[in-house]
Amino acid sequence: MSDPLSPRAIRLQSELRNASPQGFADRLIEFMQEKGGSCYDEAVTQLEHGLQAAWMARQAGASASLVVAGLLHDLGHLLLDEFEGATDFLSNDLLHERIAASFLDAYMPQEALDAIRLHVPAKRYLCSVDPSYLEHLSPASRRSFALQGGVMSECERQRMETEPFLDSALQLRRWDDLAKVAGKPVPALQAYHADLMKVRLLA
Ligand SMILES: [Fe+2]
């Protein structure tokens, strides 16, 4: 099977391998800057979406791990170049949450990795325990919800509740669902350089 990562993502992978914490932060910021200009949904770009989620985490006083998870939770879409040539890139589920968590596995603490890996199941979980949650999702998120498996079964819910960082994943998901405001002014990528270095050192 061919590598699902784009050629640019494979280059990033090799750049990160021997990078210092400073280099790690620099390379990820470069990548986000370069690839984040594509549409995330009807209202914001991929980069705007990540910056809004990270800013909500920062304003809530979240840990560096959770702030960085906010910034990078959809990195998988960019690593896969899912949006390339498609305006409806969410119409296939390529498991971007697992792609990103596995890509970052050696470089971040478990809280950040789990929050990223679980941000899609977290939507399914929240809609299962609170049916009104679905009504507040954006049209794109409602479309992908069905594709991602819809409401969780009792068994899936119980398994989710054994996750040690469940609360972090649910919190990230709530920010994710709010991080879709057209034109919202938020700090730029460089504002997260220190947090990226910090999580790299905590890995
Ligand atoms: Fe997202």
Concise synopsis of the structure shown:
With 203 residues, this protein is an all-alpha fold.
Helix and strand string, N-terminal first?
HHHHHHHHHHHH
CATH architecture: Orthogonal Bundle
- Strand elements, count: 0
Q: Roughly what is the average pLDDT, rounded to an integer?
A: 93
The total domain count is 1
Give the helix level as a range of percent.
55-70%
Which molecules are bound besides the chains?
fe (ii) ion
Radius of gyration: 16 Å
Ranges where pLDDT stays below 50 over 5 or more residues in a row are: none
Give a written overview of the molecule.
This protein has 203 residues and is mostly helical. The chain has one domain (7-202): Hypothetical protein af1432, CATH 1.10.3210. The chain has 12 helices and no strands. It binds fe (ii) ion.
Feature tags:
203 residues, mainly alpha, binds fe (ii) ion, Hypothetical protein af1432, 12 helices
Strand-helix topology:
Blueprint: H1 7-17, H2 21-35, H3 46-59, H4 64-72, H5 75-79, H6 96-103, H7 110-117, H8 119-129, H9 139-147, H10 154-160, H11 166-178, H12 193-202
Bound molecules: fe (ii) ion.
